[in-house]
Design a protein that fits this description.
Number of strands: 12
Number of helices: 7
Number of domains: 1
Bound molecules: iron/sulfur cluster
Radius of gyration: 19 Å
């Protein structure tokens, strides 16, 4: 059973919020999906891409963003360098979500992904909700709106709390399946974490087939995963080599785009 989660770090006073159904958060998005959510999204005609990056496999402080990421990443090696590879399945659409009706209401409300149930809260426990950074109109916050985050007990909205717990749990439970998915899809080049993403774009039918076989199969010990770490920057590639990792320049002919995090 999913237990309500806390939204940390805590607020000094209650954060009040209620969705106004303005629909702004349903446009031009990348929605984070679990493996099973990705199957459903593809089965309903949506598009799914995989954002992949690697970070050195090392101990991180408990509760840190790095530790959260590592617990949900695939153990791998890059030549002699132990790494963890984050494989983020994302629903992608330009403009309005294919499920968004002209009345700005969700046409897939009962099967909407957890990410939709969580916004404008944060999935990661190390991230604080900053209303000014959200798409929600000013009238959605404060005033007489219900308490969204309680300074003492955390997330107060039960739907959001259950969705946060579900997303965090799925992130851990999906690791073995994501390792299988990398193997099935031939994902062997990934970006360096915090520098960019390799955005793998397999054909929807091939991805759905691979996902179904992953979701339907009994858990197995995945084969060892080996990756090259890609970067457009010679300085970064030199650093990867010095760390005894395998480097490469981005090669879109392989079926991915390189998405830099910084200009
Ligand atoms: S699935 Fe529904 S809630 Fe989620 S982005 Fe699409 S329209 Fe919005
Ligand atoms: S942007 Fe905020 S207020 Fe508007 S629909 Fe999304 S969650 Fe609701």
């Amino acid at each position: 059973m999913n237990m309500p989660s806390r939204q940390e770090p805590d607020f000094e006073s209650a954060l009040r919020f209620s969705c106004t159904a303005c629909g702004r958060c349903c446009h031009g998005l990348r929605l984070l999906l679990s493996l099973s959510e990705a199957v459903g999204w593809l089965e309903h005609g949506g598009r799914v891409e995989l954002l992949c990056d690697a970070a050195p496999d090392m101990p991180f402080a408990e509760g840190s963003g790095e530790a959260y990421r590592a617990a949900r990443a695939v153990p791998a090696t890059s030549q002699a360098l132990p790494v963890t590879v984050a494989v983020l399945l994302t629903a992608v659409f330009d403009g309005p979500c294919p499920n968004l009706g002209p009345d700005m209401l969700c046409g897939a409300y009962d099967r909407r992904p957890n990410a939709c149930r969580i916004y404008p809260a944060e999935i990661r426990p190390d991230r604080r909700i900053v209303p000014e950074e959200k798409l929600c109109p000013a009238g959605a916050w404060g005033g007489t709106q219900p308490v969204f985050v309680d300074p003492a007990s955390g997330m107060a909205d039960p739907v959001t709390a259950v969705a946060i717990t579900g997303a965090r749990t799925a992130g851990v439970e999906d690791v073995a399946g994501k390792a299988m998915l990398m193997d099935l899809l031939g994902i062997d080049q990934v970006a360096l974490a915090n520098e960019g993403y390799a955005v793998w774009k397999p054909a929807s039918d091939a991805l759905l087939s691979a996902l179904r076989s992953v979701v339907d199969s009994a858990p197995i010990d995945p084969r060892p995963i080996h990756v090259q770490i890609i970067s457009p920057r010679a300085q970064t590639r030199q650093m990867i080599v010095e760390a005894e990792g395998a480097d490469a320049a981005p090669d879109p002919a392989r079926g991915y785009d390189y998405l830099p995090l910084f200009a």
